[in-house]
Amino acid sequence: MGTASVAFEVLRTGNVGVGGSTGAVLQRTLAALRDLINRSVSEARLRHEVRERPRFSVAEFLTELAPAAALNAGARGLSFTMDPGDAAAAVDADRSVLAAVVANLLQNAFNETRPGTTVRLRGSATADRVLIEVEDECGGLPEGNVEDLFRPFERRSADRIGLGLGLAISRWGTESNNGRLFASDRPGHGCVFTVDLPRLAVLVDR
């Protein structure tokens, strides 16, 4: 918060432009604050078992998340694509918690993917399951047990940025919605984090 305040004061003098390095510092700091707040709210909801389970279309849900993700990717010099999948695929879940789950996975992908690459957000469905996938181009998962990535305070980045809670909270949030979260390695290319949720019956417009 202090860094954001200093950057704002520098910009307010009018001696530097918002498109320069000071503006970039402010943008990164605000993004970090947003992610911290999202994680904190999600953890509080999970701890106190706050549940709101409306029925909603996953395609519509992903479409709402895409603009913010695209802005985040662009600020980092990355590309972002989104495929919402089957418009009729619906879930019964806590929308706020699920949004935090996907936001954490996207943030993780943006942090880990290689410069100039693409992060992909995809929705898909089978007869009884709905999948939300976040794919990066990090070069592949590190050696060791993939499950270790979901331990609290586990950090993948060599620079050790962050608290290492994002993936753990994402798994808690997914499981609280009767789903599961797992990672798949694509050696030499990247990895895919998949949120697997029960599918409800087809939505019918009235």
Please tell me about this protein's structure.
The protein is α+β, with helices and mostly antiparallel strands. It has one domain: Histidine kinase-like ATPase, C-terminal domain (Heat Shock Protein 90), CATH 3.30.565. It contains 5 helices and 7 strands. The chain has helices at 2-12, 21-47, 58-75, 95-112, 166-176, and strands spanning 55-57, 79-83, 90-92, 118-125, 129-135, 180-186, 190-198. It has a 5-stranded mixed β-sheet. It has a two-stranded antiparallel ribbon with strand order 1-3. A hairpin with a 3-residue loop joins strand 4 and strand 5 (129-135). The relative contact order is 0.15. The model is unreliable at 158-163 (pLDDT under 50).
TL;DR of this structure?
The protein is α+β, with helices and mostly antiparallel strands and 206 residues long. The protein has helices spanning 2-12, 21-47, 58-75, 95-112, 166-176, and strands at residues 55-57, 79-83, 90-92, 118-125, 129-135, 180-186, 190-198.
List keywords for this structure.
206 residues; alpha+beta; Heat Shock Protein 90; five-stranded mixed sheet; 7 strands; globular
Strand content: 15-25%
Derived from helix and strand composition plus strand pairing, the structural class reads: alpha+beta
**Major sheet characteristics:** 5 strands, mixed
- The tally of structural domains comes to 1
* Helix and strand element order: HHEHEEHEEHEE
Shape: globular
Count of alpha/pi helices: 5
How much helical structure, as a percent, in the residues?
40-55%
CATH architecture classification: 2-Layer Sandwich
For the record, the CATH class is Alpha Beta
Question: Could you name the CATH homologous superfamily?
Answer: Histidine kinase-like ATPase, C-terminal domain
Reading side by side through the largest sheet, how are the strands ordered?
2-4-5-7-6
